[in-house]
Amino acid sequence: MGPTATQKPGSGGLAATEHRLGNGLRLVLSEDHLNPVVAVCLWYEVGSRYEVKGRTGLAHLFEHLMFQGSAQVKGNGHFELVQGAGGSLNGTTSFERTNYFETMPAHQLELALWLEADRMGSLLAALDEESLQNQRDVVKNERRQRYDNVPYGTAFERLTALAYPEGHPYHHTPIGSMADLDAVTLDDARAFFRANYAPNNAVLAVVGDIDPEQTRRWAEKYFGSIPPHDAKVPPRDGTLPDVIGAELREEIREKVPARALMAAYRMPRDGTRECDAAELAVTVLGDGMASRLYNRLVRRDRTAISAGFGLLRLAGAPSLGWLDVKASGGTQIPQIEAAVDEELARLGAEAPGAEEMERAQALVERGWLDRLATVAGRADELCRYAVLFGDPQLAFTAVNRVLAVTAEEVRAVAAARLRPDNRAVLAYEPLTSADSASPAGEQAGAAGGDGERDGAGR
Amino acid sequence: MTGAEVTMDLYPQPGPGPARPWAFPVPERGVLGNGLAVLRCHRPGQQVVAVRICLDLPLDAEPGGLDGVAAIMMSALAEGTSEHTAEEFAAELERCGATFDAGADYQGARVSLDVPGSRLPRALGLLAEALRTPTFPGSGVDRLVHNRLDEIPLEMANPGRRAARQLAQELFPASARLSRPRAGTEDTVARIDEKGVRAFYQAHVRPAAATAVVVGDLAGVDLDAALAGTLGGWAGDDAGPAPMPPVAAGGTGRVVIVDRPGAVQTQLLIGRTGPDRHDRVWPALLLGTYCLGGTLTSRLDRVLREEKGYTYGVRAFQRVLRSPAPPAGGAAGVSLLAISGSVDTASTGPALADTWQVLRTLAAEGLTEGERDTAVQNLVGIAPLEYERAASVAGTLADQVDQHLPDDYQAQLYPRLAGTGTAEATAAVTAAFPVNGLVTILVGDTSQIRAPVEALGIGDVTAVTG
User: Fold this and answer.
1) Which residues of B touch A79 (CB under 8 A)?
2) A281 CB near a chain B CB, below 8 Å?
C-alpha cells in the first residue's frame, strides 16, 4: 500500500476555471458529468467577525432574511422554487463568511442562478418589518433549540469568549445574544445588506454537469448588471499572540448529566503549514477510535465516556484546537486533566511514529475524499479557498499539503501550542438534585460547536 | 414596500432545460459459497467505498431481561479478534482511512465500513476478522457495558431522545421489544457479560443470515478476489428464520408531559404507528407527509415557523421499525408516524392548537393539486442529489435488505410516487394523523405548559418526571 489512497491524492482528476465579471463577482466553474446534478454555492465575505458591539447575531439573522423574498421572488418563493425543481438549499453563517447553496438537477441550474442574483441585487425591495419580526423569533428559537435547551449547549460560546478577549472580533459566536437579537432594527438589516452584499464581495462556484460557456453566459446575464460598491467596513484585526500566556478557566455548575472537561487551545491560522501540522497533531491525539486520548482515557484508564480533539480552522484569527471529554461515572476532572496534560506533553516531547503519522494522514485524507465526493462539497471548498486565500485551486491540493507535513513538525506545533498556558478551560460539574431545587432559569446548555450555524430550515 | 429601488436588470424566471434521465441503481446480486449474499453496485467517481453487512438479527432475538446484548455484541466485534487486540484493530482500520461502525436496531443489526477503494481489500480483511473470529475479551465487554451505562443519562438529557423513549413506551405494550430502548436500560445492560455476548454471537451471527452490500467506484478493484479471501472464509451453519412475533400497538389520543423544570423550550413528539413499506399505501403516505411537514414550506412550518415564529422548524416523518418478510409483510409491519420539533415554552399551547388546526383543515379540505405536484417534483427530482455518495446508495440498499424488500424497491418507488394522485395522498396522510388518535409527548416545564395544554382538549394529560 502506498502512502496515499489515490493516485493523485485529493484531486481525483478535478479541475476548475476562474472568471471575473465586470462588477467584480468571481466565478469558479468545475465540470463533472458523472451525475445529472449541479451545485451552486455563493460565499459572501461577511460573518460574525464583522458585527459590532450590541449587534451580535446580525450576520446570521440577516442570512435568514435572505430567504424571505426579493424583487421577483415572493415570500418563501426561494425555498418553494428550488424544492419544487427537485433541489435542496440552505445557508450558513460562520465567523468569517456567509454561504448560500442550492444543489439542483442539472437542467434546473438557470433557475438557481436567477434566484441568487435576484436576492443579491434586489433584496431590499422585499425586506420588511414583518419578515424581520418573524425571523427574529425563528432565530431565537434556533438559539434555544441548539444552545440553551441542551446539555453543554453553551460550551462553544463560553470557550470562544474565553479564548478571544473582550473586544476581539471572534469573542462572540455567530448565533449572537438574545438581547442583541431583540435590538436589531429594520434599518440595521438594510445597512448590513448595503455594506456587505455586493458582487465584488462574493464568490460564486458552479460545480457539476454543466456547460461552462453556457454557465458563464447565464452568470453574466443574471448577475452582471448588479452594481458593485465598496461600502464594506473591513473587519477588526484578529491578530493575537501565538500563546495566551496563562490558562483561562471557568468552573460550571449546571444541570448536565456528566462531568466534562472542554478546552480551546490557540492554534496557528488556517492557510499556514503549521495549521496543517496542527490538524495532524489533534488527529493523533483525538480523532478516531485509535487516537491517543481515546486509547488512554476511554480504553485503558476508563475515566471517560468519550474523548475527542478537533481543529476549528480560522483564517482571520488564531484557529482553535477543540478538546471535549465526558467523564465516566465518579471520575473527577483533575484525574482526566492530568492524563490529558501528560498525553499532550508527550506529543510535544517526542515526534509520533511512522504508524501514527500514517493513521493521522489517512484520516485527514479520508475527510477530504468525503468532502470532494459531492458537487456541493466541492463547490463549498472552491469558494472557501477563493474567499479566504484568493485561489480556489488550493482546494484540490489541500490534502497534499497535509500529507507533506513531517512528524517533527507535528511535534513542534504540539510543543508550541498544546500547553496549559495556551488554553481556555470549561470544567462542568453536574448540579445535584438538592442544588436543582434552586431557582428556575438555570439552564442546561449543548454539544461543542464548530463555528458554523445553520440558517434557514434544515 | 419600502426599501431601495432596484438597480439591476430583471429577467423573467427561467424554465428548466431538458432533463437528463437518472435511475436509482439496481444492484447485482450474488451469493458466496458460505451462503453470504452479496449486493454490489459500481458508482463511478465514488472513491470511498461503502460496505454494509446486514445481519438478519432483530432485537426480538435477545434473551428476556438482556435488552442491549445485541448492541453490546455488535460493538464488541471490534474489541479484539484472533489476529488483533482492540487497539491494534482500530489503528489498522484507521491506517486504511476507514471508518467502522456496528450497531443493532429493532429490525436487524449492521456493520458499516467506509474506506478508500485502494484500501478496500485490506479493510475487508479486518471486517472479516471481526465477524469470524471476535474474541470478546472480558475487559472489552465490561468496558462497553460501563460505557453504555454512562451514555444512558447523556442520551436521556437530550430532549429529543427523551421524547422518543417516552413515545415508544406509550405506543407499545411493555412486553413488546419495540416499547423498550434499542440499546437496553440500566437494569438490563448491567446484566450483560462476556458469556452472554459470546452466546448471543454464536447463536445468531452467521454468513447464511447475512448480506454484504458493496457500493462505490469498483473499477480497478477485484471485488470477487477480495471477497473470496476475506468474507468468503466466514463459516457457519444455515440459519433459521429470525423471530418476529406480532406486536399490538395503538391506543387513544393523550398527552404525556416529561417534566423539565425551567426548560426554555418544549420538545414535541406527536405520533402513532403505521404500516411498513410493503404496504401499498407507502408512496401516498410519503407524499402526504411531505405536504404536511416535510420541509419549511410544508403546512406545519408555514404556520408554526414562517407565520408565527414559534419554532426553528417542525417536521412530519415516517420511520419503519419492523418489516417482516412477505407474505406476513404489511400486516405485521410497523412504522412510526410522527411530528417532531421544539417550540419556546410560552408558545407550547398556541403551537399545539395550530398543529391541530392544520390537521383538521387538512382532513376537511384535503391537499391541493399544486401541493401534490410540488411534493412529487421534490421527492422524485431530488433523488440524483440524495444518491451522489456511495454511502447513501449503500444505506438504502441495506435498508431494503433489512426490511425484506426487493432489490429494485427504491428504483420502483419513483414511478410509484409520480403515479400517486392528490386524493390518495390526502387519504393516506389524514389516516396517518387522525386528530383524536395521536399520542403527544411534551418534554418541558410542566408548571408552565400543563394548563394551556389541558385547555386544548387533545386528550388526557399526565406528567412524569424527567
Assistant:
1) 295-297
2) no
Record: fold of B254-465 = Cytochrome Bc1 Complex; Chain A, domain 1 (3.30.830)
Kindly tell me the burial class for residue A85, based on how many C-beta atoms sit within 10 Å of its own C-beta (0-12, 13-18, 19 or more).
buried
Closest CA to B88 of B140, B161, B148, B38: B140
Q: Which residues of A375-384 are buried (b: 16+ CB within 10 A; e: fewer)?
A: bbbbbbbbbb
Cell numbers that stand for A98 in this block: 456567509
Residues 393-432 of A with CB under 8 A from B: none
The label of the residue with cell 510543543 reads: A415
Q: Is B397 left (phi over 0), alpha (psi -120 to 50) or beta?
A: alpha
CB of A180 within 8 Å of any CB in chain B? no
pTM, rounded to two decimals:
0.94
Under 8 Å between Cβ of B128 and B233: yes
CATH architecture of A248-351+406-447: 2-Layer Sandwich (3.30)
C-alpha cell at A229: 460598491
Domain residue spans of chain B: 28-233, 254-465
CATH topology of domain A17-223: Cytochrome Bc1 Complex; Chain A, domain 1 (3.30.830)
Q: Assess whether the region A17-223 and the region A248-351+406-447 belong to the same CATH fold.
A: yes
High-pLDDT (> 70) share of chain B, %: 97
pLDDT tens-digit series, residues B279-302 = 999 999 999 999 999 999 999 999
Q: Does residue A63 register a pLDDT over 70?
A: yes
The answer to whether B159 contacts A87, with C-beta atoms less than 8 Å apart, is: no
Q: Which pLDDT does position A7 carry in this prediction?
A: 47
CATH fold of B28-233, please? Cytochrome Bc1 Complex; Chain A, domain 1 (3.30.830)
Contact of B200 with B153, CB cutoff 8 Å:
no
Query: Which residues lie closer than 8 Å to B348 by C-beta, 6 or more apart?
Result: B266, B442, B444, B448, B449, B452, B453
Q: Span B180-190, mean pLDDT? A: 97
Q: Which of B4, B296, B302 sits opposite A457 (nearest CB)?
A: B296
**For residues A137-154, average pLDDT:** 96
Inter-chain CB proximity A305 and B1 less than 8 Å: no
| B159 to A149: CB separation less than 8 angstroms, yes or no | yes
| Cβ proximity of A374 and A39 under 8 Å | yes
Determine the residue of chain B that is closest to A359 in CA distance: B95
Closest approach of B460 to chain A, Cα-based (Å): 26
Domain locations along chain A: 17-223, 248-351+406-447
Q: Do the domains B254-465 and B28-233 match in fold?
A: yes
Which positions 238-267 of A are in contact with B (Cβ < 8 Å)? 255-258
